[in-house]
Structures
1.
Amino acid sequence: MTPQPATYPRHRFPAEIISYAVWLYHVFSLSLRDIELSLAERGVAVTHESVRRWCLKFGQTFASRLRRRRPRPGDIWYLDEVFIRINGALHYLWRAVDQHGVVLDILVQDRRNANAAKRFFKRLLRGLRYKPRRLVTDGLRSYGVAQREVLPDVQHRTSRYLNNRAENSHRPTRRRERQMQRFKSAQQAQRFLSVHGSLYGHFRPRRHLMTAGDYRRARAKAFRVWQQETCVLIAA
């Protein structure tokens, strides 16, 4: 029997097309209209507004499934914050990565003080449910206050030269921020970047540390997991 394409309830397009559109939007620096054009070239007539709704409806679900499938992150956390402007107001994007470059979490806040740092620490602990062995941050004093109150038993190292992993992980965000002509609200930035970090990281292993064969195997595994978690493949 020929396998039938998987579908999502109340959607006329098959799951393969919807998940493909979400994948394009979050893994590559493409606009919604770019994706509309790409799908049209393949004979799929869909509007950019439909693509936007698919990303809003399914993006977070896909990202959560991928996070559940990833191995336990490392025990050294690198934290950094970068400013973003939203409607002319200054906000801060807090980000944590482990020693392998895996994005652990992000949080958009309008403050850069100790309370904001503590809020981010608590969010990390609630989501990951384990404590790191070491924290590495820049010289922002807010990190020290949060570490002493929330993670007093964890080693904390501060140096602008040790925190390159977290700083480098901001680069894809900067590219998308420029392509999207800045974020429209803090909620939109949080929603998009939470999904973008998971999907982008899932398909972008640290290739410069891998042989060509290892990279191809990691890429094939990433696609298999993506197909399983987005219900693209179903049994015959």
Note: Strands lie at 76-86, 89-98, 103-109, 134-137, 155-158.
2.
Amino acid sequence: MGLLKLLTQDPLAFVLLVIPLLFSVIIHEVAHGWVAYRMGDPTAKEMGRLTLNPLKHLDPLGTLMLFLVGFGWAKPVPVNFYNLRDRRKGLILVSSAGIVANIILAFLFEMLLKVIPLRYAGTWMIAIYFMVQINITLAALNLIPLPPLDGSKILLGLFPAQMQEVYGRLGSNGLIIILLLLFTGILNPVIGFIRHLIELLIGIR
């Protein structure tokens, strides 16, 4: 369901979903830029992308797709991998950063759900639940090794130079391929399996 349809049908659910979603996507992107900065590339910092301001991260087309069909994206944080002190290691660590950030967020908010007494449960607890689920899904989706998802860049960092060039060419049509796979449901079992592994990792049974 697109967020636009959700807004018209259930405005409260819209708010409870959108706030965790925006926060999670922004943290994902900032994590990429922060790790790149720590490894020698100041590009994201110089372009003002190491911020939690959503206006710096929203992609017009990605936002429109999110509202219309329920799947969207933010502007990727710019990274110049040639600036990194260790390009191969940097490619893996920078690409992993957003995924790790989402898993950490899912773990922290899952722990929060477990320690808060039920008598204090309220509407805002739904937002915390959404926070956990959104971050698990973002991490699972980005672990898929298809360009331009982070999993493809992690895999790229493990390949020898010759294979990197060949695999990197897939990126030009990668987004279209991913959208088709998502809309047809082909990726659902893959995402579900990775989600299950992440849930086991952070202690969700």
Note: The mean pLDDT is 87.
